[in-house]
From TrEMBL:
EC primary class: hydrolase
Ligand binding (Zn(2+)): C211, C214, C231, H244
Source organism of the structure: Canis lupus familiaris
Entry EC no(s): 3.4.19.12
Name this polypeptide is given: Ubiquitin carboxyl-terminal hydrolase
Length: 725
């Protein structure tokens, strides 16, 4: 029998069992019923392990089950095999090697690498001119670890070949499947990894931009190949530009451009003319730096223009991120960063603070073997599994290792690069916790406080046995509500997780910059209600009429669409914090239409009113509040009107049974705070500072460094722990 291929033993071993390639078909026969071709709607995970942050870039590669299409690192694939009996996996591995040098010492001329077929981010720390990538795929049959190199069209059964091709060509599992959803995940541009950038000396200033072919100073796009600044397309409302950026692409063929004014530390709007759609550029920071733009110092304003009132805010960006200070990188357990997925810093900051708390560490990472062993068949859709995975990734130190000099020398000798983990990507975690949530599932910036409450709600719903780590945040709030007509007073106690501090509008120092009135009027001229336009501009962070218009389209069916804008904690408006301090009267009823929506879902009217009062009449937060306060009972069940005594005007309520509130010393110490930069909590950037081992550490997305000047007075959320007496 002629030998055309090879079957090898255990990966990394030297004495594996070998068989003739002609026996490949016979070897697969017993397993054929378990091999499937991915169907429409199947999620194919080929970039990330379900239990860890291993990927094809990892030393052991990644194993994709050919039946469930779940992926597992080398440490976890055996668990899946034992649990399910699935035997056939596709092993994916990316190799990084130094390019062969020419006679003159430079790298050989660049050629198209046909050996790259995995949709993976390349290592930003490597110069693409000096290194080359090679992707490897093979089938592995458990438990004997037989390996079949791919492609192997001649030897493999047709079904197996079709299944392998379908797995390798599958799209990201995080792309939303519902065609009716408003916003899908942006694809990574195929031009981003190997984008050509001309060394023409072009440097882009931080402001004052103008189209190179006309006099327009808005809707400007920077071509990432030659640095040309040109105007965008004309819009139906007579705004926009003259289309010079598109003309430039047609003339030169340079594919990618970024919109000036949208660049922030979290990303920017990037458009691919060749692909004809908005895209993601995983190397955007490097591409912008080529033209002298530092993403960390960009604040996302139209043409970089700011009023004098905005100057203090500019300094806050630098102070909060400790810009200008040489910060020492931190490595090891507890010092792992989180890569920014595009406006995901709100999630990263909250999760870093959460997993610095011992109760959360014990509940998830401390129970890792049990949680992983008893996880459902699809661990990507289990909250406790994904919380444990994230906690272990942040705390183990496995993904935060400093480069070791001896290892670097060994890599040079082998001419193979071993990538250093530069933070972990919370993509799978974000996809699950934001599922079915219209805001968190989008790529827009969100409020870190809102996400914190959303996370606590998920922890409450998915508690592990009797242990509930979110109990550390629970506290009792006493509310005093007085009826303006009868003057009767009612005292109630409720459980909450977050104490809000309202700030009066009169105390604001930048009142003139809360809302861009020019954008408001531009939207109002299109026929939208004025108050709706004001809300659209405010909640999109003054990013311009175009972004605010998109907000209007998404929210125009909401019952309070045209209601006046209520800024959180401002003026006489009832804020979420107002209920904490007992400032809400009985005559200040929530909008009846929102109450009706909640009661139509089967909840009691009093539940709806209580929840809306506690959440500033926010429908989504009110529903979360109801689910996270199971101890709340309808008023009629326990309201006792005290009559015929000295307290005839007092209504007293029984306390909920078993509030699970830990009492103790009234002394607290600050151990973490989250800071926000930007014109609203729905835009800008979030950074977290945590006190660890006696010193403050700054967590700025994937960058983790020792803090030199922690800006404690510029926090948005503060975390305290009780100090025992």
């Amino acid at each position: 029998m002629q030998r055309r291929g090879a079957l090898f033993g255990v990966p990394g071993g030297s004495g594996g069992r070998k068989m003739a390639a002609g026996d490949v078909g016979e070897l697969l026969v017993p397993h054929m019923p378990t091999i499937r071709v991915p169907r429409s709607g199947d999620r194919v995970y080929k970039n990330e392990c379900a239990f860890s942050y291993d990927s094809p870039n990892s030393e052991g590669g990644l194993y994709v089950c050919m039946n469930t299409f779940l992926a597992f690192g080398r440490e976890h694939v055996e668990r899946h095999f034992r649990k399910t009996g699935q035997s056939v996996y596709m092993h994916l591995k990316r190799h990084v090697r130094e390019k062969v040098r020419g006679a003159s010492g430079g790298a050989l001329p660049k050629r198209r690498n046909s050996k790259i077929f995995l949709d993976l981010d390349t290592d930003d720390d490597l110069n693409s001119d000096d290194y080359e990538y090679e992707d490897e795929a093979k089938l592995v049959i458990f438990p004997d670890h037989y390996e079949i190199a791919l492609p192997n069209i001649e030897e493999l059964p047709a079904l197996v070949t079709i299944a392998c091709d379908a797995v390798l060509s599958s799209k990201s599992p995080y792309r939303k499947q519902d065609p009716d959803t408003w916003e899908n995940e942006l694809p990574v541009s195929k031009y981003a990894n190997n984008l050509t950038q001309l060394d023409n000396g072009v440097r882009i200033p931080p402001s004052g931009w103008k189209c190179a072919r006309c006099d327009l100073r808005e809707n400007l796009w920077l071509n990432l190949t030659d640095g040309s600044v040109l105007c965008g397309k004309w819009f139906f409302d007579s705004s926009g530009g003259n289309g010079h950026a598109l003309e430039h692409y047609r003339d030169m063929g340079y594919p990618l451009a970024v919109k000036l004014g949208t660049i922030t530390p979290d990303g920017a709007d990037v458009y691919s003319f060749q692909e004809e759609e908005p895209v993601l550029d995983p190397h955007l920071a490097k591409h912008l730096a080529h033209f002298g733009i530092d993403m960390l110092h960009m604040h996302g304003t139209e043409n970089g223009l700011r009023d004098n009132d905005m100057k203090p805010r500019v300094s806050e960006w630098e102070v909060i991120q400790e810009t200008g200070t040489k910060l020492k990188p931190m490595y090891g357990p507890g010092y792992t960063g989180l890569k920014n997925l595009g406006n995901s810093c709100y999630l990263s900051s909250v999760m870093q603070a959460i997993f610095s708390i011992p109760e959360f560490q014990r509940a998830y990472v401390g129970n890792l073997p049990r949680i992983f062993d008893y996880s459902p068949l699809d661990p990507t859709q289990d909250f406790n599994t994904q919380m444990t995975k994230l906690g272990h990734g942040l705390l183990s130190g496995q993904y935060s290792k400093p480069p070791v000099k001896s290892e670097l020398i060994e890599q040079v000798m082998k001419e193979e690069h071993k990538p250093q983990q530069n933070g972990i990507s919370p993509r799978m975690f974000k996809a699950f916790v934001s599922k079915s949530h219209p805001e968190f599932s989008s790529n827009r910036q969100q409020d870190a406080q809102e996400f914190f409450l959303h996370l606590v709600n998920l922890v409450e719903r998915n508690r592990i046995g009797s242990e509930n780590p979110s109990d550390v945040f629970r506290f009792l709030v006493e509310e005093r509500i007085q009826c303006c007509q009868t003057r009767k007073v009612r005292y109630t106690e409720r459980v909450d997780y977050l104490m809000q501090l309202p700030v009066a509008m009169e105390a604001a120092t930048n009142k003139a910059s809360d809302i861009d009135e020019s954008s408001v009027m531009q939207l109002a001229e299109m026929g939208f209600p004025l108050e709706a336009c004001r809300k659209a501009v405010y909640f999109t962070g003054n990013m311009g009429a175009e972004v605010a218009f998109n907000w209007i389209i998404v929210h125009m069916e909401e019952p309070d669409f045209a209601e006046p804008l209520t800024m959180p904690g401002y003026g006489g408006a009832a804020s979420a914090g107002a209920s904490v301090f007992g400032a809400t009267g009985l005559d200040n009823q929530p909008p009846e239409e929102i109450v009706a929506i909640i009661t139509s879902m089967g909840f009691h009217r009093n539940q709806a009113i209580q929840a809306l009062r506690a959440t500033n009449n926010n429908l989504e937060r009110a529903l979360d509040w109801i689910f996270s306060h199971p101890e709340f009972e309808e008023d009629s069940d326990f309201v006792i009107e005290m009559e015929n005594n000295a307290n005839a005007n007092i209504i007293s309520e029984a306390k909920p049974e078993g509030p699970r509130v830990k009492d103790g010393s009234g002394m607290y110490e600050l151990f973490a705070f989250i800071s926000h930069m930007g014109t609203s909590t729905m835009s800008g950037h979030y950074v977290c500072h945590i006190k660890k081992e006696g010193r403050w550490v700054i967590y700025n997305d994937h960058r983790v460094c020792a803090s030199e000047r922690p800006p404690k007075d510029l926090g948005y959320m503060y975390f305290y722990h009780r100090v025992p007496r």
